Amino acid sequence: MLRFLPFLLAALMAVACSSNKPRRIVTVDEAMSKSMRAFHKERYFDAADRFAQMSIDYAGSALMDSITFMEAECQFQLKEYLLAAELFEELISRYPRSHLVDQSRFRVAESYYELSPVYGLDQSFTYQAIDEYQSLLDDFPDSELREEAENRLNACRYKLALKDFKNAQLYYRMTEYEACLNYIDDAVETWYDQPEIVERTLLLKARCQVRMKRMVDARATLRDYLERYPDNVRAADARELLQDIAND
Length: 248
Known about the structure:
By secondary structure, the chain is mainly alpha-helical. The chain has a domain at 26-96: Tetratricopeptide repeat domain (Serine Threonine Protein Phosphatase 5, Tetratricopeptide repeat). The protein is built from twelve helices and no strands. The protein has helices spanning 5-20, 28-40, 44-57, 64-77, 81-94, 101-115, 124-139, 146-173, 177-190, 195-211, 215-228, 235-247. Helix 7 packs antiparallel against helix 8 and helix 10 (195-211) runs antiparallel to helix 11.
């Protein structure tokens, strides 16, 4: 046994010497490069973990806004939209002077947009998306994302307008004409920038007024409709309805 003692001591000394060697410090740029490689390879789980660890290891770095943005973007790509929105909001709050603030605001809006369901369901996320897109447009009027934000905002407003129109249609079919008219008037006033919905709503309003025997109001509504939409595919229906009223 004693003859192996020198070899054992030598091995222990080698391990001790190697453990005393200083560990190489990974720079923030190196860590960022590795994390970005994982992201570009669409290994979003791996990349998200890397960026999350970087936010701890390099908490005082000048790249913290970029690190937070990329962690949030990983969550967005993983369809974890609420978590993504939270991280983008964190960036906006902690680094208000970052060049990534407008992109982060847009991504918050996009997160809620992705969570927004079909028009027949609860539209809370749609309203949140609208608020975020509008904030971007108000706070960053010259943003490169302006046109895309305007298009998304319009899509959200169209969905809400369609929901109101469908509700009005439902009341019409239920012969709840007073409720139908209330929905219509609110829809026309609220969604004035959605011409397709306003057009369909005005014609429904005229039909509702006819059912309620409000012929004077129906004629006025139909004339208004034909003045606004003389070439619409439903203009022939409006003219026919107006003619029927005139013959009564």
